[in-house]
## 1
Amino acid sequence: MNIGLKEYIVLADKYLFCTIKKKNIKHINSYVLMLEAGIIKKLSSGIYYWLPTGLKIIKNINKIIRQAMDLVNAIEISLPILQPINIWLQSGRNLDYGMELFKIIDRKKNIFILSPTNEEVITYCVLNEIKSYKDLPIHLYQIQTKFRDEIRPRLGSVRAKEFIMKDSYSFHLNKNCLQQTYSNMLHTYKNIFNYMKLDYVIVIADNNIIGGTISHEFHLFSEHGEDCIVHTPNYDYIANIEYATYLLPQQKNINKKNILEKQIITSTKTLLDICKDNNISTKKIINTFIIKNNNEANSFVMILIRYGYKFNINKFIKQNPLFISCKILSEIEIKNIFHIHNINALGPYNMNIPIIADYSVINMYNFIIGINNNQYYINANWNIDLILPNNIQDIRYITCHDLAPNSNKLVFTKSIEIAHIFQLDTKYSKAMNLYVYDMYGIKQYLYMGCYGIGVSRIIAAIIEQHHDKYGIIWPTTTLAPFKIAIVPINMHSNDAIKNMAYTLYKKFLKHQLETLLDNRIISFGKMLTDIDLIGIPHIIIISDKHLKNKNIEYKSRNTNTKIILSIKNIVSYILNQE
């Protein structure tokens, strides 16, 4: 249908700009700029509506993603946002996600979940649609809104309750086929982010509650990021801090001359108070606590870790997968289950449960530790006063004092995660009985891959890396809401300027260059402020002064430079810049 060029003209006075004056908002630069540029507007904590400018940017990102997915023969589908809880019960992940799940009860008292992710739903779909090994491999994807009941939404669209993601899932007859697709998707994501001209890093990550074996995260460095990447200066070691390890210590023989005689004291005070009273360094404290396995009754483990280090539950779960769903027992729970009334004195002495010690305790000597019943050991030593546990694991967060596994210095850099890919193996196919018979008639559970990009998050991440004091600078024009802005000065009182504005607009349109014609009755300065703020790359300024010489003024948003160009050359000039 030919609806005519006139229908395509985007006039600023008919466009919902929604730009606001700069305010002293205490959030990251991307959030401030997204509000000021009229990209998003807050409705409630963690909930935003996307205004016309924001929606244009989303569509541009989606177009890039779709083109990339077409190249790997992925097929686009649309999965239901509303999911029956029974499929989550089948996979067991309702417990893993816990309070993050939004739940809805219909009039028939059926419970549904607002989709935070789609592994269960896509597995159910393939279970009903794929009947033969000849249909494999298959790769399905969608771009959709997802929901998570974040306990503390923050950073605008980086951590929201409602967000847009591209997620895709591949299904395979064997592990080798999955690994090939996984490698292709890793390369595809590199192509997407390289095309967007993003400065990103890839880190080996943990599959956590998604499941599977291997995963990689894509991060953009940002001083306001909520994640932290640990790496050596030359990046020969790089990992998310949640899973980063360090140069593990070797157990040393302690000089017997340094070993003091053990003391037993009775007190209701904390370990810190006892150290203070006895002039003991807090580095001599061994903290203890108990973890419960939520999936098994009466399944507990005691953790020993040196005071000053933070327990890393992600590393603990990775090394102890049976504890995929677990929690640290509270003081009341310890009292009720183990009949220990003073949690400050909790310790490994006479505890009939498994014990895991962090590497931080193996070379400690003359340490202080609880031994239950309001009693403490002072100047305790391993294998003299207490047996060093056999199970030693790296279960703490690394610090700036640690070295990388290759002995190099570590650097800690804040980041924003923009994508995550997983090899899920057969976790969901076995849980939901998804299998086919291969060419030999042997039953095979399908191998599965999962590949996600945070679309709404990536917009914030891009802006974090690409902005100046005037507003957003899109790293590639394909991301910008408009490629060209025409700014005719005094067009409402000068027919020549007005006619030239429309003439240029139609020329740009013929070359599929999306253009905004600013016909608002406002000051020239206000026009440029808005255009700079939302980051339109090419700005055409038409003035009486230059029009008389058949010229226009061209401004580049990326460089903030201006040049005078002949009207007849402007289209070719911009096309060469694209």
Note: Residues 292 and 300 are 5 Å apart (CA to CA).
## 2
Amino acid sequence: MKLVLATQNKNKLTEIRDMLPKEWKVYTLDQVGIHKELVEEGDTIEQNALQKADFVFKKTGISTLADDSGLEVDVLFGQPGVHSARYAGITKNDSANRIKLLEEMKFKTNRNAKFRTVLAFTDNAGSNIFQGWVEGYITDKEYGVNGFGYDSIFSPHEFEGLTFAQMSFMEKQKLSHRSMAIKSWMKWMISEKH
């Protein structure tokens, strides 16, 4: 199977590629001639994922998988959510985003949060979306050096006391929101015999 991964985020590319069958021919955006960052203008994570998958498929004619993810904090009514990548401003800055979120959470006792990924798959038959999520909480400060984004301030309930950034790549891959979404999509792909 040929597949374009519709993201310029090298960390997401690594996580997604790791879970795909090795015999698939997987292309990055650069390899198909799309060198700029894809526009994310949707009001929801679902809209952003669909917008990216549809755009890349129309440009390339190759089956496309797009990812949009967000950290949804209960006490902040689901924020940063769809704005996770640019929470601290119009440019993407992981460190500034974490600092802003930790500041907003400083005096909050309810620290429950959910990391959610929506995958959009577009091919000649149309578009389908798949979700994965992991529940946990926002820590009081940053812990760990692995991962990216909000990994150093999010601790999944399943690994209480460890943030994603304190886990090995393989530990995170077993339970992350992105891996749950990919597993859901792969199950569908097998049932649809793609």
Note: The longest strand covers residues 126-138.
## 3
Amino acid sequence: MSSIPKEPRQLMINLMYLVLTAMLALNVSAEILNAFISLDRGLQESSQIVQLSNDQLSLAIEQQADAYSQFEPYREKTREVNELVKNLSLYLGGVRDTLIEAAGGRDEHGMPKKKKNKEIATRMMVKEGRGDLLKEQVLAVRAALLATVEDAGERAALEEAIPLRIAELPADSEEKDWSTFTFNQMPVVSVLPLLTKWQNDARIAQTVLLNHFLKKTEVNTIKPDAFIPVVAAEKSYVIRGEPYKSEIFLAAYSSTADNIKMWVDDRPVVVRNGKAEFNTSTGTIGAKQHRMRVELTDPVTGEVKRFDKTFGYEVGERSVTVAAEKMNVFYVGVENPLAISAAGVPSGQIKVTASGTELEKKSNGKYVAIPSKVGEATITVSGPGLNPTTFPYRVKRIPDPIPALGNLRGGDVPSGTFRAQQGLIPILEQFDFNARCSVISYEMARKPRSGDVALATNQGARYEAATRRLVDQADHGDTYYIDRIKVKCPGDISTRELSGMIFRIK
């Protein structure tokens, strides 16, 4: 993504604001006021979309700086830009909250009660000088954002792409003062989308600069184009009763890389398509140890990095091993992978049976166990020359998920952050299986600083209309309670009730 200030949706919203402002001079009808409300909501939605893009751009720059120390200055510039935009957005949000408070607070729809009032904006923004201060803040942030680009030519090229600015007064304007021209005799509801527009323009300016910084961190690296799952076991042979420990991860490599060299026991091995194959005879029984060395040449700096590791295996007589690839228990409602093999016995002659669970055969000694109820299960393996060997497993239900609003789990939360959330998410923490729990219902209660408690019951994860109205009313000093959270996870017959959350709006 290069930059998005010319997005059709954004241009349409800007044009709508100009048209609606012109119509105010003719008539302050309910239809026009409602149009301003819709416009403000549209701007807020656009701002959220832009912020998601900015978060991804920031993460990409952070990752480049982590990988290459020469890009550390762009990490710092990114953080500076993000902080400038964040502070301006908070300032504009504060002006917005002050206007709404002066207009009698919010009504049941979350809008200012005195939304038609023209004297409030005139007094605050014109007579009290807050409009001039706002202008100074916007211009100061624009200058600070551009100052993060040191090259004068690049800075000049970016100036036009940054929409955060204060418009010049029309040549035929009777008003010679910007604050008077912008805010004098304007209904409160017409000022809100203007404040939101500056917040949106700041985030678009942030996008332009982050794209510029990300382009500066591009390097001609050899990128992974192939992936393979790897199980690195602490020991390749275990005795019954001993713990089996292994690291399971996904390895990425380049099938076209020519900057990798490998040795095993000081003998080079041929690297083809980004990886090597090591073969040796196993004529004797017992533990075997080998030393591996890998050298990787950095394509950017030319630096050679060396990696050493010792690996081993045990050569034994005919035996059977069964290892759960993820955990030493089975979970109800999900596929539990198993790798089953018998040394010295062809895989086609191995017989595997199960009790307490369904067992589905995949390929190459791979199986999945799918139990349907909590309790115990057994896997029995037999084959030519092998007595049946039984392996017991405990069957558990999926652990309770943790409820969250985005990444929020309770405590003190800024009002803007709280209002930006879209619904409840049940998170399965430290659970390695591909499973997702569903939110069935929950209750939300709002306790304002003064006034009665308001309650909403929500079906599903995403906010319904009543819950959304409660969230949009979040203000300093409010307390929100979310409880009676009912969810359903794979394998569940009935719903579960999770612990509630408490948020204090600051």
Note: Residues 402-505 form one domain.
## 4
Amino acid sequence: MEAAKTESLNFINLGIVLNKKGEVLMIRRVKKEEGSGGAVLEWAFPGGKQRYDEMREECVKREILDETGYDVKSIRQISLRIHPQILVTIVYHLCELNSEKQVAEPREPHEVAEIKWVKPEEVRNLITTDLDSKVAKTLGI
């Protein structure tokens, strides 16, 4: 019941995090999520559910730190959409690293099986659901 008080089911905030090499931060989920049309979400951009008492930028920062151990700052919102296959509202943020190194141990091993930096062109191979067109444009893919 506590989660119902603190989490807003309306928004999932995801971070498009780039390092100095231009690589994109990705996570592999412990549990694959199934969507409509046979879509399966295994690899994803880090992020998560927004709490009622926090701003979107705070949410994406908190979630990325918890999932990956990286401290980031949201630079701007790239896109907001209802995902056609997973049926949630997703807010995509372009984020920069406050430090190139992990500042903490990831705290969500029950959710994240692997953390990986990939070249932008590899994102399409990892994300098997519909990739947001504005995110693709931001990544140049």
Note: The helical segments are 2-6, 56-68, 123-126, 133-139.
